[in-house]
Amino acid sequence: MTNLSMNLVATARDHGDTVALRCNDLALTYTEFDSAAARIATLLEREGIGPGDRVGIMLGNTPAFALAFYGILRRGAIAVPMNPLLKAREIEFYLSNTGASALFATPVFADEARAAVDVAGGRLWLVDDAGLADLIADLPVQQSPVDCEDSDTAVILHTSGTTGKPKGAELTHGGLALNCEVTARTLLRIEFGDVVMGCLPLFHVFGLTCGMNTSVLVGATLTLIPRFDPRTAIQVIERDRVTVFLGVPTMYAAMLGVAREFGPSATASLRTCASGGASLPVQVLNDFEKTFGCIILEGYGLSETSPVASFNHPDRERKAGSIGTPIEGVRMRAVDGEGNQVAIGEPGEIQIAGHNIMKGYWNQPDATAAAIDADGWFASGDIGTVDEDGYFFIVDRKKDLIIRGGYNVYPREIEEVLYEHPAVAEVAVVGIAHESLGEEIGAAVALKPGAAIEPGELVDFVKERVAAYKYPRHVWFLPELPKGATGKILRREINVSEVESSTGRA
């Protein structure tokens, strides 16, 4: 039996009195964690939700997410994590796309959740930590997790590409279990007694696998911060004696910015930091290590790779600016447009093969076939080089992905919303370099003949329809957008310097 929730059962058996989850003043032991997950499995069973059924989780970074996630897996159902900041139309798509039977959602965004469920159907539970405890308080414990195969889907994480329609990456029980085992044993060296900082969103694969699932596997304590703030992060590191910190580059830069407010003892407990989600500037890496006295190990992965594919291994040479070498059981290569492996130092698309690769895109066989070839190689869409020692370096993104503050934003999705406005004729959404966020979102717009509108009105139009991290902060107008010979709009030829001179700055 491979059910990922068996890791929780085993840890609760061996280390039941150890604090598993901590958030503000709330602390749950592994016994309490396992018991709550088992009661959630009973709740799902009574609602007629069984193995293979999909259940959405739209909860923040608090223990409620972890309890719901492991309760869903224990029942043999499939978890569909979502960002709590999503708007109703986005939630409805996730639910409808997966045919989800139910949704656990935060009361903070109750209106959006209700509106989505009204369209998609299914059961809705609006719960925070206390509300979830009340919901399951009188329910009996489901005795044991449902049997699953390695290849059974455990999680559907939505990602996207150039089509603009999100795709649900199916991550399996076996793939997730092995990815967190390799992460704990060979990469982060997390063991029983460690305290892991949970700044990363649990609905994101980095926080889900490397933070939560890895902590559960070894019996570490996961201390959660509902919303990242650099001062709060350092205070919690000091309070809980955090040993392992997982973050994205913007988090490290933000903590550097407030470091002078704290003494060296505040972060003395830190042993290992890991960075992913975007390239970590070498200057930030060097400054952070010098200031906090703790190494940062940079890695690489995607939702489709469970996520870890490569890492700067702690027992090998570390190369600043590199995403390291493939992890145990994984192969990587860089290929040209014909699929031939490129020479050392030459750029090519990074492809990945191994136990970490997704099962496929949910109900999208054509998209799956386009992403994974007959030999099992997954095309990442990222362009990179390989040096003579086998270390990979990211050069650019083949896909037009924008990473704003660690969150993925897909231009086509935002363009589709802008096209809904009656004044818009053409639009290209692009990333603009930003000192602290990495990238900011901009939209170059050509209006329909005779149309008159202020840039701020378009900003507000999008803001009402997508999550707060997605809407463009800069909108500027052009007579027409650059196009190729076939009439395709060329985002790469959009001059982002127009932002500074344009009256369309928002």
UniProtKB/TrEMBL annotation:
<dbReference type="InterPro" id="IPR045851">
    <property type="entry name" value="AMP-bd_C_sf"/>
</dbReference>
<dbReference type="Pfam" id="PF13193">
    <property type="entry name" value="AMP-binding_C"/>
</dbReference>
<dbReference type="Pfam" id="PF00501">
    <property type="entry name" value="AMP-binding"/>
</dbReference>
<dbReference type="GO" id="GO:0016874">
    <property type="term" value="F:ligase activity"/>
</dbReference>
<keyword id="KW-0436">Ligase</keyword>
<feature type="domain" description="AMP-dependent synthetase/ligase">
    <location>
        <begin position="11"/>
        <end position="362"/>
    </location>
</feature>
<dbReference type="InterPro" id="IPR000873">
    <property type="entry name" value="AMP-dep_synth/lig_dom"/>
</dbReference>
<dbReference type="InterPro" id="IPR042099">
    <property type="entry name" value="ANL_N_sf"/>
</dbReference>
<dbReference type="InterPro" id="IPR020845">
    <property type="entry name" value="AMP-binding_CS"/>
</dbReference>
<feature type="domain" description="AMP-binding enzyme C-terminal">
    <location>
        <begin position="413"/>
        <end position="488"/>
    </location>
</feature>
<dbReference type="InterPro" id="IPR025110">
    <property type="entry name" value="AMP-bd_C"/>
</dbReference>
<protein>
    <submittedName>
        <fullName>Long-chain fatty acid--CoA ligase</fullName>
    </submittedName>
</protein>
<comment type="similarity">
    <text>Belongs to the ATP-dependent AMP-binding enzyme family.</text>
</comment>
